Amino acid sequence: MFTPSIPILCYHDIFDGGSHGLAQFGEHLDAIVDAGFTTISAQDLFGIVTGTRKPVDHAVVLTFDDGHISNFLNAAPALQQRGMVGVFFALTDFIETAPPREPAAMPSPKPLPDCFRDSLLHQDYSQFINSGEIKSLIDAGHEVYAHGSRHQATFRTLDHRYPMGHPKAHWAAWSIYPQFDPALPTFTEGSAYVYDGFWPTGKANEQGEPILRRRTTSERQAFCRQDMTASFERMRELNKTAHQFFCWPWGQFDTESEEELKRAGFSAAFTLERGANSPGTDPFRLNRLGVGRTKDGAWIQRRLSMYRRKATARIFFKKLRKRPEIKHVLYATDSVKLSGGSRQLVNNARAMLDLGLDVTVLVPPKSAIPTALPAAAQVLHCDHFKRSTATAFLLRDVIRERGIDVVHTFHNKAYKAGVLAKIMGGGFRLFINRGVIFNPNTLFGLWARIANGMIVNSFACAASLAKVKVPDSRINVVYNSFLPEGPAPQDRGARRKRGVRILYVGNEAPAKGLDVYLRMCQTLAETHDLRDVEFAIAGAQKLEEFASIITPQVRERLLDLGLMPHAQVLKELLFADILVLSSRLESLPNVLPEAYHAALPVVCTNAGGVPELVANGVGGFLCPVEDHQCLAEKVWTLMENFSLRVSMGKANQRIVSGLLSNRRKGLELLQVYHGRRIASPLALDSVNSDTPEP
Length: 694
Known about the structure:
By secondary structure, the chain is of the alpha/beta class. The protein contains 22 helices and 25 strands.
């Protein structure tokens, strides 16, 4: 003898133009009758799975989600014509207290997305069954239970979808934003019962975009408690049933939301998992089959045959797993200095904290990085980064103890430990940061395949990884951000006591091209009157090594600022008039966005990723690598044209505020952490508009 299982079918709206047309729905019901199946109630089903009622063969439960008026107008009459019963789930916030409407007085049914928008935006609940219609359904032998209060959604990730005013924008945004604005961005949605999600804070950034922040799990639990309790009490008033059942919106649930559902008093819950419904089935995991728009009667009969027996129903199972949320990110580096890469690590940590995520930073004991981190970041120390295996064990333990979802490593020793921890079976997503353009060793391609992805700061850097066979699908281009410590300067007026200061920021390494800068200075001195010009160099410790190419004409106008703290470099950028970047090899130097914030025009060689950030002729000029004469020519153009310097500086400010903001970087990183590939060039053309692309 086989153990019967009870198939449960899931429908929504039933009308021509809805999820299922009238003829199609009638075909389904006739197919059920022809197959010898009888509909039973949810209370009967509850008795079977809990053992208080004997299982029956050839039984089916028909459920209808959302409480659309077509359920009352069309579904219920079609059921009654065939002696069938249905189980309807209504959204309790949308149930108006009113007598049942006559069919002629009811509005024409609309597609459910439009109904949700009208209800959420205008409190127009006319498309949903009211209290009198619920009573009529119950009096006719049907059942009505809760589907939650209002099908509340959240932004599950920050992966961009359509703006709110686009025809394809999902109606869920109407339940998240307090009001409609066609320009508001929307993102991937999910159930607010199940995902902490991202919510508008009521604040906007400089571009007018809403600032979103992740809700904490405890806040989500409090929402579930309030919503489910209210839904339970309202439905109990209407159906007056001892055992109250619940249907999960979107079929989504998790441990925390299920516990709150039980605390609210519900006795069972319907999911969209597939499997057997037989004695011993968890009543909070009742399995349903979603009936697609294109399915016919033959499909219905095949599914009834597959799921009428416990043995076969268990074979054709489908589990709905909660998609992973990114709640806690760990950044790891073996660096002790606040170098360019380390500052980007700090920026990443700040961006994640601003989005409401938890952040842990793993650094050596003497690292200067913690001094730049916000107090909310949790700092751990590792004194054995040189021993990759020991560091990997430490990482593995920290990940398990703290529930780390993502590990993002900076610098060589940290990424090797991260790879080893991943090999050990760590349940986390690993990303390796790379901000240099020189070719990695051959093994790097292997490490990149073990990690979930690479995060680089330019396409030039990405090209260097391609040389060691790192797949394009693993490479994400996320540009460096700049996090200002104060407001951007608004007016860079001409100075009275001197003419123009031309600034170089960098060390003496050949890749930085200090010698190219000095030759540019000499070319200017030989061809132009430089009474009011000052050549400033910040960051060089051994300028005397270049004495052979520093002519007297240049020396008398040379200001050696020496090695200085980063905060002082930012001040020097404010005091300069033109930044010259004379590099031979670069990925994406941090000094460029720093100069942009200071409203500086730039003259650069087109080394590495520099052209990706410099809008040639708009925010500055580009010259071939090593071409000091071109640099001199472009610098002279800017020296002679004050208004051009001002306009280019403002264009660069728009780039850094609109395209290189820390918020933007945080959003892109979070998308990468969730599994989306980011690899789009900066939209530098947008600097011609007062509103850069988001």
